Amino acid sequence: MTFAPPYPATQYEPSPPVDLSAKAERERLSPSAIKGFFNIMETWGVRDEDARALVGGMSNGQFYDMKKKPERTLDADTLTRISYLVGIFKALNILYSAKLADAWVRRPNTNRIFGGQAPLAYMIRGGLPAMQTVRRLVDARRGGV
Are 87 and 118 in contact (CB under 8 A)? Predict the structure, then answer.
């Protein structure tokens, strides 16, 4: 029987994953997630209709109420969607100048993932799985892969 050598000691301790099933965690994260989401949508120049689609097809009333009063608790799905968008935003701003980073999601893209369409259109059409794909793509580029 062979034993794997122990993992090397490190001072780095990964953060435990956030438990989005816990209401207290969602209450803590929601207001800043909402504010961040609307700031990103404004920076990217995303229409409200498209922004509603990105957060899961929210109704007009719910969307504009959230815009006026961000002090609310989001569900786990909406928080996950916003988390992907924040990660994409951050990675783009590491990779590119502010001007290109802010325009990237709206520009047609020749990457075979997008098939000539803009990443924004791809994420709207593909929902959460598409957001995850875009997040992985920009994170891989940021990491030099």
Answer: no
